[in-house]
Design goal:
Distance between the termini: 50 Å
Largest sheet: 7 strands, mixed
CATH topology of the largest domain: Aspartate Aminotransferase, domain 2
Radius of gyration: 21 Å
Number of strands: 14
Order of helices and strands: HEEEHHHEHEHEHEHEHEEHHHHEHEEEH
Bound molecules: pyridoxal-5'-phosphate
Strand order of the largest sheet: 4-10-9-8-7-5-6
Shape: globular
């Protein structure tokens, strides 16, 4: 081979820079919150997924400390060896009760949960139907599973139906997977219509509710509860604990049989060290807070309305989203990066630019996210900054 490793990689990195697709990390000091110390400077944060402001809640922090005192730090092994502790087990039972499913199974992250479920359930000859805008972890899971992949139009049950009708009925499995709330768009999947199509065509429906749990529905039970659906219509639910829960990890909820199947077959469950038990204790504390946080959800809803009203008055194109994710469509990647850069350096406001391949080509955006911990004055400050940049 003529090129060294570094020469080959440099060429690819250079290409990314030229296309405004190069990504850089910032360094955060102190806790996650609406006011962040970023690269040594105080900034107002509008891009985290800590939608209820629980990541630094004293109850969650105290539970983590108590958990570490009791269990130490590392789980020491995977769940199937001897890493499955009392704290993990209790959290699983509490999560199952929360979402109203028979059982729940903890994973170390949402990415791993999606990989685990889809590779355990599907293989060669099976079909996976996905919304075009599903999260990367669902797309990657499909590729790894070896199943035939088809993507239907975003949020379009009719397009799903067209794909379903073309499937040749045989003994093979068909799984439909969708985000509940789309991570980069903020809109909701039309779950009742998708569930209807799944039933009609004997397909299984899986919902990734990373951005709905904690935020939507009474007690924050998520997108299923928002639409009054249960596990008979959506037999596979994935939820994450690193977003509205302000903690870390993920879970899958479903029937006894589904969970036992995952324990036997989900490789991203079996071949990895269990979460630190103290983190499970922190998640238990945050689950209690989430259930009781209707006031925070009401405040979040009011802030969403305030931002949308203000943006409309300024003629800004916020995407059609009812949730805490309120993206401002820009289109061009370079322009999105420039806007994000100017917000940060001229106004000390952090809103990240989301570019392809995270979103489709030509749909770069500023992904604004709101938290119940924001104040009205902070939302107004964002609006004033966006106005100044116009
Ligand atoms: C829709 C969706 N699913 C899954 C994940 C992955 O979850 P985790 O961050 O816990 O790996 C994310 C975000 O990261 C997400 O937005």
């Amino acid at each position: 081979m003529s090129q060294s490793l570094d020469e080959a990689l440099q060429a690819a990195l250079q290409q990314r820079r030229e296309q405004s697709l190069y990504r850089r990390r910032h360094i955060v000091d102190g806790p996650q919150g609406v006011c962040l110390q970023l690269d040594g400077k105080a900034v107002l944060n509008f891009c985290s997924n800590d939608y209820l402001g629980l990541a630094q809640h004293p109850d969650v922090v105290a539970a983590l400390k108590r958990g570490a005192d009791r269990y130490g730090v590392g789980a020491g092994a995977s769940h199937l060896i001897n890493g499955h502790g009392r704290a993990h087990h209790a959290l699983e039972e509490e999560l199952a009760d929360f979402v109203g499913g028979p059982r729940a199974l903890l994973f170390s992250s949402g990415y791993l949960a999606n990989l685990g479920v889809i590779t355990a359930l599907l293989g060669k000859g099976d079909t996976l139907l996905q919304d075009r805008l599903n999260h990367a972890s669902l797309i990657d899971a499909g590729r790894l599973s070896g199943a035939r992949l088809q993507r239907y139009l975003h949020g379009d049950a009719q397009s799903l139906d067209t794909h379903l009708q073309k499937l040749v009925h045989n003994q093979h499995r068909t799984l439909i997977a969708t985000d509940g709330v789309f991570s980069m768009d903020g809109d909701l999947a039309p779950l009742p219509a998708l569930a209807g199509r799944a039933r009609q065509h004997h397909a299984w429906l899986m919902v990734d509710d990373a951005h709905g749990l904690g935020v939507l529905g009474p007690q924050g039970r998520g997108t299923l509860d928002h639409f009054q659906l249960d596990d008979s219509q959506v037999p596979i639910l994935m939820g994450t604990l690193g977003k509205a829960f302000g903690s870390f990890g993920a879970f899958v909820a479903g029937s006894e049989t589904l969970i036992e199947t995952l324990i036997q077959q989900a490789r991203s469950y079996i071949y990895t060290t269990a979460l630190p038990p103290a983190v499970a204790e922190a998640s238990r504390a945050s689950l209690n807070l989430v259930r009781a946080a209707d006031d925070r959800r009401e405040k979040l809803a009011a802030l969403i309305q305030r931002l949308r009203r203000g943006a409309q008055q300024l003629g800004l194109k916020l995407m059609a989203s009812p949730t805490a994710i309120q993206p401002l469509l820009v289109g061009d990647s370079q322009q999105a990066v420039t806007l994000s850069h100017r917000l940060l350096h001229e106004h000390q406001i952090m809103v990240s630019a989301i570019r392809p391949p995270t979103v489709p080509a030509g749909s770069a955006r500023l992904r604004i996210t709101l938290s119940a911990a924001h104040s009205e004055a902070q939302v107004d400050r964002l609006l004033a900054a966006l106005e100044a940049l116009q």
